[in-house]
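Run log, item B.
One chain of 81 residues. Sequence copied directly from the ordering sheet:
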Amino acid sequence: MNTSKYLKELISPLIEDYSLFSVDMKKNENGVIVFIIKVSNNDIKRVIGNGGRCYRSIKTLLRSCFRNELVDLIIDIAGNK
């Protein structure tokens, strides 16, 4: 399964403004997989969650997609105006 598409489907129920919502994936030179989630400033709190609970859950679910405990994941959540 395409992990960017999976991540987008996972987060979409939390989003109110879909016009600013996007998910990109890239691999940096160290082999770390970086997901960049762009949402509106109002949706950042929903995606991160209370105390980072949603963020940690999203990271756990993504790690299970790779089926490799040694994969380093970075999820960068950026706000748009």
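Observations after the first pass:
- DSSP finds three helices and three strands in the chain.
- The two ends are 31 Å apart (CA to CA).
Flagged for discussion on Thursday.
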